[in-house]
Design goal:
Elements: E1 4-6, H1 28-33, E2 36-39, E3 48-54, E4 57-63, H2 69-92, E5 101-105, E6 109-113, E7 117-119, H3 134-150, E8 152-153, E9 162-165, E10 170-172, E11 179-180, H4 190-214, H5 221-226, H6 231-251, H7 256-262
Antiparallel strand pairs: 1-5, 2-3, 3-4, 4-6, 5-6, 7-9, 8-11, 9-10
Helix pairs in contact: 3-4
The protein binds adenosine-5'-diphosphate and magnesium ion.
Residues 160-161, 174 line the site of magnesium ion (MG).
Length: 269
Amino acid sequence: MATIRCMSDLPGQPNDAESPESAIWPRVSELLAKSQLLRAATSGGTANVYVYEKNGRKYLVKSFAKHNFFMRWIFGRSTIGNEWRVLKALKEAEIPCVPQGFALLEDNTLIMEFIGGMQLGGKLSDPIKNNIKISFFKELMMLMKKCHLAGFAHGDFRRANILVSEDGRPWVIDWATATYCPPGTSKWHFLRRAINRQQQLSDLYSLVKIIDDYYPELITEEERRASRPNWLLRLGRYLRRTFYRHGIKKWFGRTKHAKLSKQGGAPNA
Ligand SMILES: Nc1ncnc2c1ncn2[C@@H]1O[C@H](COP(=O)(O)OP(=O)(O)O)[C@@H](O)[C@H]1O
Ligand SMILES: [Mg+2]
């Protein structure tokens, strides 16, 4: 069996043999072979996403195991490792409506809680056709503020990373680029604190833009003022659009899975 680090390492976690926190997971190759591919990586820098079922329960698996050596080590280890640490910290901070992380396998594969529902992007992005309740956005804004107060910044607060659960509540996924600076973080960590502050601004800016499409009256003057992008945020968004989306992402190409899915459906692992 592969060595795993899981939530049961934390104090206060349940420790019965059946709980996902303390479950023994198979090796990554075996796990992926038994999983259903949900979404192939869109570039070398993003993970393949699978659904794994065990004892009638679904798990979401994000994995860089099928990427080439370079991407697995450069992106895989850092982004998956970061998401794992942030999910653990979110759980410890008792932030609701974020998936629980269950295990990090072989430093390239993350197992987390599967959230049933739909992305706010895609089919649900049309505000006219999709009557998403005002309470959804109120709760989403409160959730974001709660995260920020606790020191978290998501950094990629797009519609695609917001899920509408089956009971109509907002869930925030994809914490791979998030930062965590809890209150009391030393002033010596000035770079981390600056990135965290900038990401919080970016979160607010993105969320205000999203809510504006549905219920603009929900945004207070103060939120509108606070969400105004500074030159750094503008520059960041420009660089991301120009160099990342149209440059690096294409340059690194697609993974084996992405190519397969483009040809008409990737097989399971
Ligand atoms: N915990 C989850 N529960 C259900 N679906 C998820 C979960 N996490 C991710 N997904 C699905 O997988 C897709 C890609 O995952 P995401 O974490 O956003 O990775 P990426 O960095 O590639 O955008 C999401 O858009 C969503 O459809
Ligand atoms: Mg995403």
